[in-house]
Structures are given as C-alpha cells and as structure tokens.
C-alpha cells in the first residue's frame, strides 16, 4: 500500500507500521482507537474547531470555500462530459458522411466498369470506417478517459 506514496511518506508510514507490529494486542487496540484517518474537501472537525478558535469566521469561510470548490468541480465535470458528447456526435456524423461517400464512390466505380476496384474500394473503406467507429465508441465509453495511455 505504501508503494504509491512519496519516499518521505513511505518511511514515516513504514516506521509507524513497524512500531505497531511490535506491540501486544492490548497496546495495538489502544493505538488503533486513537489513530484516526480523515479525508474530504473539508478539514477534520477538530482541526476546523482549532481554526475557529484562531479566527472566528474561519470555519464559515472554510466550509464556504469547500462548497464553492465542489460546485466548481461538478461544473468542470459537466463541461468535460458535454464536450465528450459533442465530439462523439460530431465524429459519428463525419463517419456517416464518409461511409456514404465511400459507398457512393464504390457504386460509381462498379457502374463505370471497374467492378473489382469498386468492390475493393468499397469493402476497404467500409471496414476502415467500421474499425474507426468501433475504436471511437470504445474510447468514448471508457469510464476513465483521463488515464495515461503510456504503460509506465
């Protein structure tokens, strides 16, 4: 679990885990009862109370900032999803037009006496467009579109 943490954090976590391993069961229970993990957009309530003690409006401003940040993140997510939807629709329209054109050109070639070239042109055009559409659908439906495509 500590592999993804920065080096300095790894050593602190490793030392803590080593210290806990050396305790008996009663001591482990006592330590675990006092260890507390908290994550979220707002500080832990105890920390928030300490800020409030230092500056009377601190808690209100911190909560207001947390709510504003949450709204901002949702707005950015909505924009990202809207752009992704627009690109999907635009891509499908472009591929539909290109597909029609490939089939029309293939038909024109076949009717012009070039049956083999028209068939190959139409078949390859159709297969390449189908492959592109399938790739586009896969990338657009992927739940994590922000992941890095390079394998590290």
Comma- or semicolon-separated keywords:
152 residues; disordered N terminus; mainly alpha
Describe this structure in words.
- There is one protein chain.
- By secondary structure, the protein is mainly alpha-helical.
- 76% of the residues lie in helices and 0% in strands.
- It contains five helices and no strands.
- It has helices at 7-21, 25-34, 45-54, 58-111, 115-141.
- α4 runs antiparallel to α5.
- The longest helix is centred in the middle third of the chain and has 54 residues, at 58-111.
- The protein is elongated and about 90 Å long.
- The two termini are 18 Å apart.
- 1% of the residues are buried.
- Mean pLDDT is 77; it is low at 1-6.
Please outline what is shown here:
With 152 residues, the protein is mainly α. It is built from 5 helices and no strands.
Q: Quote the distance from N terminus to C terminus.
A: 18 Å
The total count of strands amounts to 0
What profile does the largest beta sheet have? none
What would the principal axes of the Cα set say about the shape?
elongated
| Helix proportion | over 70%
Specify Rg, calculated over alpha carbons: 29 Å
Helix/strand layout:
Blueprint: H1 7-21, H2 25-34, H3 45-54, H4 58-111, H5 115-141
Helix pairs in contact: 3-4, 4-5
């Amino acid at each position: 679990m500590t592999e993804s943490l920065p080096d300095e954090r790894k050593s602190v976590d490793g030392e803590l885990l080593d210290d806990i391993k050396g305790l008996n069961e009663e001591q482990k229970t006592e330590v675990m009862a006092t260890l507390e993990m908290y994550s979220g957009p707002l500080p832990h309530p105890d920390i928030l109370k300490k800020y409030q003690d230092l500056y009377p409006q601190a808690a209100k401003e911190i909560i207001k900032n947390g709510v504003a940040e949450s709204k901002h993140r949702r707005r950015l997510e909505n924009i990202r999803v809207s752009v992704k939807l627009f690109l999907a629709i635009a891509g499908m329209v472009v591929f539909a037009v290109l597909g029609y054109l490939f089939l029309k050109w293939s038909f024109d070639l076949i009717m012009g006496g070039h049956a083999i070239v028209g068939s190959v042109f139409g078949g390859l055009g159709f297969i390449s467009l189908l492959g592109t559409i399938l790739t586009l659908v896969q990338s657009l439906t992927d739940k994590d579109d922000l992941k890095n495509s390079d394998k590290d």
